[in-house]
């Protein structure tokens, strides 16, 4: 039996509302985390001498804070169509620029992470950097050719129109490589510890090296790619 046009509209709107709930909840969680950790940021970052690591932390923290605020503005339902038509392009362009910069920060961070994990060895870090830089490059191209528009009904807020799907191939590839390199290093450290008659918990080593977080990230990518429609995992552990 063919679905009626009204049923399609209702289903589309229900999916949109569900997505909005997930999105706003995830952003509220991010803002809550920012406020409850601000005192520690002041103590451990602002109270210390500025270093490359603290600069990277500050850039990542505040670029993502701006992204969160702009995304809430972008999703705001209170604009009239005329206001959305004039305000969407600048909001979307600024937001997309920040998102590109955020992915560049991620590329630098994951590269330095592998570099540090492998005792300042650039050999495993360079392929990670090459793959990670493809994401901001691809997003930059998509944003250049895309057109900021008011989100089509039943959505509200702003959107960007493009015929290109950015995909997640490069993100998946470098996440797998990071996980592989991390597990290799973890196994090497565990072997060295056992040779000294030290018996570390494998779980402790995995948590220390962040491998479990990488597994969560990969799980999010798989779920977002394979499960159609909204899913809460994609909103709450998005990379």
Automatic annotation (TrEMBL):
<keyword id="KW-0812">Transmembrane</keyword>
<feature type="transmembrane region" description="Helical">
    <location>
        <begin position="124"/>
        <end position="142"/>
    </location>
</feature>
<feature type="domain" description="DUF6533">
    <location>
        <begin position="21"/>
        <end position="63"/>
    </location>
</feature>
<dbReference type="InterPro" id="IPR045340">
    <property type="entry name" value="DUF6533"/>
</dbReference>
<dbReference type="Pfam" id="PF20151">
    <property type="entry name" value="DUF6533"/>
</dbReference>
<feature type="transmembrane region" description="Helical">
    <location>
        <begin position="93"/>
        <end position="112"/>
    </location>
</feature>
<keyword id="KW-1133">Transmembrane helix</keyword>
<feature type="transmembrane region" description="Helical">
    <location>
        <begin position="211"/>
        <end position="237"/>
    </location>
</feature>
<protein>
    <recommendedName>
        <fullName>DUF6533 domain-containing protein</fullName>
    </recommendedName>
</protein>
<keyword id="KW-0472">Membrane</keyword>
